[in-house]
Amino acid sequence: LEEGEYCHCYANAGLCEKKMVEREDNIFELTRKFSIDETVSFKGDKLEQPKVTEEVVAVQDIGYFFVTNKRLIYASEKQASALPLENVSGIEFDGANIITFNTKDEGSVIFKYPDDAAEVLVIIVKRIMEEYANERKEEKQMSFDRANPKGFNNINNFCNSSHLFFLLLNKKYPIHFLS
User: Which long-range contacts (CB under 8 A, 24 or more apart) does 72-81 make?
Assistant: First the structure.
């Protein structure tokens, strides 16, 4: 783990991918010939079975899924990968055991978990992502406060200062309203 990073929880997981699978529908072929009497007979023609294409989630690899305060980490004997929390744009849960992490740049990453772990992991990851977003906001505010002299980080304090008239007359320093 990186400096300042700690693990909240981990679980067994299967790294998955969505695949399009073609399968045959279950319709029986009629190939028999039969007759009831000399006047009535029936010959069944061969029916082609229609093929149905469907999207399935297939497990590619089995490993461990770690949730830290900065990243989502997957590790197995074959591969290891990490997804920074800042790149996660959303989480989808199928209600059973599959969680899809939508990313800002890479599309989505899908994991399958034991039934009892999936729902708990969704709750934990959502809370950690909220905490991570709040920490980023606090860091931005702290860097803003450091960049601006004391008393000038609030537009009301700035407007009440005695330097406002001078700055407006000189037009040397533009005033930017912060939201």
Answer: 72/101, 72/125, 74/13, 74/15, 74/111, 76/15, 79/15
Q: Cα angle at 103 between 137 and 84, to 5 degrees? A: 55
Tens of pLDDT along the chain (179 residues)? Answer: 888 888 988 999 999 998 888 877 655 455 556 566 666 665 655 556 667 788 888 899 999 999 999 999 999 999 999 999 999 999 999 988 999 999 988 689 999 998 778 888 999 999 998 988 888 888 877 777 666 655 444 444 444 444 434 434 444 433 433 33
Neighbouring residues of 161: CB distance < 8 A, sequence distance ≥ 6: 151, 152
H-helix or E-strand spanning residue 59: strand 51-68
For the whole model, what pTM was predicted?
A: 0.64
Hey, is 36 helix, strand or coil? coil
